[in-house]
Design brief:
By secondary structure, the protein is an all-alpha fold. It starts with a helix and ends with a helix. The longest helix has 41 residues, at 2-42. It is built from 2 helices and no strands. It folds into 2 domains: 1-42; 44-87.
Length: 87
Amino acid sequence: MQIDNDKNLDVILVELSNKIEALLEKHEEMALHIKEIKEAVYHPDQGIYARLRDLENWKNAHSRILWIIGTTTLGLVTATLWNNIIA
């Protein structure tokens, strides 16, 4: 009876050891994936924050251009109407 218990305990310990090794492998894999995600997000030249910064700069520049075009158009329309009223 003691021999069966010892064998069962040995089997359980081997299974537990295998599961712990598998868990450690998954942990290392997960750590690698987290590192890759962190690099993708925070990379100064190609990360998500860099892309958002570029999009924000593009938006600001185009917003200024649209304001200039709109103001110029309004000025030309006003000048045309003014000249037609006076003339």
